[in-house]
Amino acid sequence: MTSSTTAAPFSLTKHLLSLEPEEFKAATQHPFLLAAAKGTLPKDVLSHWLVNDRLYIHAYIRAAGQLLASLELPKHLPGVEQPGEEDEAFEVRLVDWLIEALGAVRREERMFLEVGGRYELVDFVGVNSREVGRVKGLGVIEGLFRDVGRKEKGKGLGSWLLGAGGGELPVSEKIPWLEGAVTFWGTERVYLEAWSWARGQQEERPNGKEDEDGGALRREFIPNWSSDEFRGFVERLGVLIDQAVEREIGMVGEDGQKQEEVKKEILGRVEGKWRTLLEGEKGFWPDM
Prior knowledge:
Pfam families: TENA_THI-4 (PF03070). Residues 26-69 form the Thiaminase-2/PQQC domain. InterPro entries: Haem_Oase-like_multi-hlx, Polyketide-peptide_reg, Thiaminase-2/PQQC. The chain is 62% helix and 0% strand. With 288 residues, the chain is an all-alpha fold. Helix 3 packs across helix 8 (178-200) and helix 8 (178-200) crosses helix 11 (256-282).
């Protein structure tokens, strides 16, 4: 009797997470996060970071608008009477995720204002965010966000039509929203893992009043940034990305060589962005 084994589907998100383990660790286990967990983070350092995180939110909102504007939505709905999420086009699911993301970051910005005022961290009303010292990683992340929804010069449908034309679209034109989705998933995944790690380093302090920040991180921010709800939100985008890539690889049939060629082209589009993102996220935490 012979047994056959089916290879597990390729997961782009798992591949990226395994790509640069030391850089990922540096971005998610920073001394700033440890101080936040231990309650030893000075108010002025936390306030400085919150102002930068608010600038990150503004770049995030602009990038979400760019990606939404770039999406080609299906002209016809699937012939299903009551379609579930899995039956919808990837672009439709991405629209839903981005709209949810926009609502979430606006709630977070309002939380900054409310919690910052209550714990006397930073007066956002009286602070010009653009004049506050920027953490070194912010510019890197802003650059990635500026690229969301844009085509690389010389790539895309227009250059394909002006070149060889005809036949199948190049892989660079397939899943055109991939780089943008990976950017959003990447920055959210790092944020989730960073604050989940910080939560795991916390010592028992019921109210956090003895913490340097008065308990703002322990009672308000860390629970929000490491919640099951946030993890589910991040994982939904990861599943969407993996399913879209898996479908694209499967479109070439069972020819292993062709599948590897498609995979290689897809990795060539996103691995560099992932490495740049990790660089930016590592530099987003203030020096301690």
